[in-house]
Amino acid sequence: MENARKVGVAVDFSTCSRAALQWAVDNVVRKGDHLILVNVHPEGHYKETEMQLWALTGSPLIPLSEIRDAHVMKKYGIKPDPETVDIISLAAAQKEVTYPFHIYEYIQMLKRLSVWL
């Protein structure tokens, strides 16, 4: 979509994170937007999972179909809760949003923020 915006929401799968995601979907996201969920791992977390392959750049964008697959998400070192997956599934259906998921290590996120600001 030509006028699609990118709306990023940081998620850690907590109650507050779900509330922020729901608020963003209800109040910010428009039909056709790109909803990007960002999860930041603690420094050094990549050494424990296959995520070490993306230690410098962060993970590739992960589609919703993979977020629903516990086996795939275990490779990324995260366990999304069903409520968060339900929120993005509903947003995808009702607002026709794309919903990639991106994982960064803490230090990567600091570097990204310094570039963005």
From TrEMBL:
Any single Pfam family the record assigns to this protein: Usp
Coiled coil location: none
Stretches assigned to the UspA domain: 5-68
Name of the featured protein: UspA domain-containing protein
Lineage: Eukaryota, Viridiplantae, Streptophyta, Embryophyta, Tracheophyta
